[in-house]
Amino acid sequence: MNSSEHSGGGRTDGRSRIYIYADESCLGNQFRARSNPGGAAGLVEQFRPRRGWARKDFARFEPDTTNNRMALWSGILGLGALRRPSEVVFTSDSQYLVRGMKEWIHGWARRGWKRKGGEIENLELWQELAGVARRHRVQWRWIRGHAGHPKNEYANMLAIRTARTGEGHDGLVPSGFDDWIRARIDAGQFVDYLDVPPDEPFEPDPAAPAP
Q1: pLDDT in tens, 13-38
Q2: What is the pTM of this model?
Q3: From CA 18, how far away is CA 42, in angstroms rounded?
Q4: Which domains does the chain show, CATH number per domain?
């Protein structure tokens, strides 16, 4: 996904803002004596006034994993796919991911990448995510899962499908969102959906610390 590069702390124009909707899935994590396949997936989109939406999907499969690991992978994959520094609104229903990037990670970095209670779970992924997030101005947004937000529901579908089929892919691929949302509307879901850019103000969170 391309975007216009921003300079310093200034704002970019609306054409270069990227929206990412990500989700994760881990199947069978209620069991202890078996592997738990998982998927991290999402939708990356950019609105261009003259051409409309440009959309891509991403997905990663792991044969034995956790929800938390896949939430972190959703951030690494989504932000890592952007070719230039961008303004990004990153939306996820994972409080582990969103609170971690908005709150926890800064304290961990000040303490030498340690938390008060001891070692940090998934430290290597947190540091990898911090590295890719530092290139961008990111607003981390939490959304309640399974609450009827079309793009969150689409990301959830992608993550579950990836976990079930074991089929991820490298990089971004053409998105199936347009066909998916049309089919849902035809079935009587999301009948009030308007495919327009969000009108909330962009309020970037503090930059991620150095890994």
Answers
A1: 443 799 999 999 999 755 566 789 99
A2: 0.91
A3: 13
A4: 14-186 (3.30.420.10)
